[in-house]
């Protein structure tokens, strides 16, 4: 009953059921506490006292050394960002099974602490496919996609059969790195196991990978074969087509999504479709969609949708309208969004509007949000407009604050291996040969 309530997202009845059980004189066992801990997690942060009671009962009934129960506790404390308590629980268990190790690695991964997670992963006595999946997911969260592919290679060498979660992480990494060869291998593997159509989550990851690698025809083919298309699949193809420069097709797919056999659009859908309008300069279409979000599609606009509208107006040269929109609409979210104002500043340089750029710059500096990029951008705006004194002040500010440009980075895949190159860095093993060839080209 407790588990049933939790699976139905009814945490409070689950806890009351547990209290009734105790009133009947029944003693909880190691099958009672994991769903009970899940119930408490669903209630956090409103009912911390209940969580303390549950943890206290675990201690009283003597289950502090039970890996099954401790794994559930670790998962809970990870979700409420209390990794110190989670680690003490983990260290307190004498005989740790693979589930307990994996729970701890997954907890560190969710916190973005892949260093500690990897330390445990490397020393755990036995690993299963879920352990590998948890470590890869951790690296994906911090955008370290090269490590994801490195782990996948090791996993294959050790003969571990990947599950759908592992394949999803690898496809995400391939998309971000442009590693098409490895992406093709994963798709081929999924095809052999009938996972590319039957599993919409994995199929969506395949669509996203092809789109990011510039193979939009392949992305459309896989999308067409998905049997039960959810919002995620529609979002992936709408975004992918737009990313590859075909906004009108993207709008057409959006119309099909909203049709009889489509799916209900969500917040992500509108970020994708508004981005398509931005890059194609479709101001009227973008504004119309934004205005219809809440009224027609019942999706409440969020900060990122307002930011899309600002970008849409700014790129079209409607800088005063974009500035007014920020003041009236985005200001209601509280604080100041450096990315939104920064996008407007970039448009000011493109359209050579020093007056609006000057006002935007003052806002950014008043809130201490001027980074290296915005300083250089504003310097160029002033310089190109002939505002020499202001340009000089920006350059002095750049020196005074000690801001430095982050070096550029690029990736290329050759024979299934992804190589990274950083500006000014010669640590690549074949740097000498590369420079020699580059010199011959010049």
Account of the 3D structure:
With 442 residues, the protein is an all-alpha fold. Among the domains are: 76 residues, no CATH class; 62 residues, no CATH class; 104 residues, Serine Threonine Protein Phosphatase 5, Tetratricopeptide repeat (Alpha Horseshoe), CATH 1.25.40; 36 residues, no CATH class. It is 70% helix and 3% strand. It contains 26 helices and two strands. It has a two-stranded antiparallel ribbon with strand order 1-2. It is globular and about 85 Å long. The mean pLDDT is 86. Pfam families: E_motif (PF20431), PPR (PF01535), PPR_2 (PF13041), PPR_3 (PF13812). Keywords: Repeat. One of its GO terms (molecular function) is RNA binding.
Strand-helix topology:
Blueprint: H1 2-7, H2 11-23, H3 33-43, H4 48-60, H5 67-79, H6 83-92, H7 98-111, H8 114-123, H9 129-141, H10 145-157, H11 164-177, H12 180-192, H13 195-198, H14 200-212, H15 216-225, H16 231-243, H17 247-257, H18 267-280, H19 283-295, H20 303-315, H21 319-328, H22 338-350, H23 354-366, H24 372-385, H25 388-401, E1 409-414, E2 417-422, H26 431-441
Helix pairs in contact: 2-3, 3-4, 3-5, 5-6, 5-7, 6-7, 7-8, 7-9, 8-9, 9-10, 9-11, 10-11, 11-12, 11-14, 12-14, 14-15, 14-16, 15-16, 16-17, 16-18, 17-18, 18-19, 18-20, 19-20, 20-21, 20-22, 21-22, 22-23, 22-24, 23-24, 24-25
